[in-house]
UniProtKB/TrEMBL annotation:
Biological classification of the source: Bacteria, Pseudomonadati, Bacteroidota, Cytophagia, Cytophagales
Keyword Metal-binding tagged: no
Protein's recorded name: UDP-galactopyranose mutase
PANTHER family attached to this UniProt entry: UDP-GALACTOPYRANOSE MUTASE
Recorded superkingdom: Bacteria
Family indicated by similarity: Belongs to the UDP-galactopyranose/dTDP-fucopyranose mutase family.
Cofactor dependency: FAD
Molecular function per GO: flavin adenine dinucleotide binding; UDP-galactopyranose mutase activity
Pfam families, per database record: GLF, NAD_binding_8
The keyword Flavoprotein appears for this protein: yes
InterPro entries linked: UDP-GALP_mutase (IPR004379), UDP-GalPyranose_mutase_C (IPR015899)
Amino acid sequence: MFDYLIVGAGFAGSVLAERLATRSNKKVLVVDKRNHIAGNAYDHYNEDGILVHKYGPHIFHTNSKDVFEYLSDFTDWRPYEHRVLASVDGQMVPMPINLDTINKLYGLKLNSFEVEEFFASVAEAVPVIRTSEDVVVSKVGRELYEKFFRNYTRKQWGMDPSELDKSVTSRVPTRTNRDDRYFTDTYQAMPLHGYTRMFERLLDHPNIKVMLNTDYHDIIDFIPFKEMIFTGPVDEFFDFQYGKLPYRSLEFKHETLNTENYLAAPVVNYPNDNLYTRITEFKALTGQQHPKTAIVYEYPKAEGDPYYPVPRLENAELYNKYKKLADETPNVHFVGRLATYKYYNMDQVVAQALTLYKKLTATPEMADKPKKPAIIGSTSIMEKLVPRDPAKK
Ligand code: FAD
Ligand code: UDP
């Protein structure tokens, strides 16, 4: 009998497994349908021996001391501040837009005060900022919006920025100084030996058993457990009973090139050209020395593995219906980017998982009290609460 069945070995599942096993002496089974741990943060050495991120570039950054210190128990770090160039009008310019971006793009020599005046002169008045278009045009005007944001967003999301919540383009600031870092968080670093090694250490405990290549549907009838932690897509858990929640997917095209360096920056964004949004050169992120170099192209698409929840009102409303179901499902806890339909970075998922751990163990009397098992043998609470579609496997 396991105390917890955890579905998903990404950040959400692995952090909870670690806390429950080491701090609360719970017996935990972690299952993942993929053939590896670490979820979308999974990295591995490719056939040429270069460390690559299978699911696109993952750069760790956070303002949370708690999250950084927590993960530091499982990895050493390589200080790393991320930088991105955008290919616009035949030039490579810093992204986020800053003083140098404007000067290079327009052949000017403005200082910080002058560029502020420039932005003010081109900015559009938007009374209420609701959409991802509003965010940008209200700061830098329509021309820069069209050069840097409109087409990238259309490619990435398959819809116009005016159809997306303001939170999407708000992720990228505008600067009047020369700071060309992509993030300004207090803690910015890469796990020294990679993400997967860090996850190996998170999951390395006698109370934790990991089963890979395992969809949880295939084992819940056979493996008894008391509670479930679910980190997969929430709509799938409930057999899409209110319809599918839209997720955006990507196709990753990995390449190894017979040259030591390839890009002018760790990541180059292509807002207006090509079918891909950006190219990443992994050695720039990891600091690895190697005579060859590995890059990845990201091609956005609608179908495929769910990578991004799509932040817009109608999706939030649909998610809220699933959330209500989730809240009403006893002994199952939903956490992580897909299970709570939130466009979360890694650190936010870690924080969410640590918060859930605290909640699960909030009242020691309750936590220690034996609970009625949710699943024994073939009697599954999910079968009762969520009728399985007989047409589905
Ligand atoms: P996941 O990592 O998705 O883990 C969920 C796991 O559940 C998966 O492994 C899946 O296989 C498993 N699962 C699902 N259904 C089932 C089932 N039925 N049975 C068994 N297992 C199942 N964040 C940053 O902080 N910095 C970045 O630079 C960054 N870059 C990103 C780039 C890309 C292209 C993407 C897609 C994301 C990026 N992120 C980044 C976000 C980061 O990947 C997520 O915040 C984090 O990985 C989410 O962790 P999670 O545990 O919630 O989900
Ligand atoms: N974005 C853009 N142009 C860029 C970079 C970002 O239009 O050059 C917009 C786009 O909508 C993107 C969002 O800002 O999806 C968030 O960018 P971020 O780099 O945070 O995306 P992620 O790394 O999560 O894919």
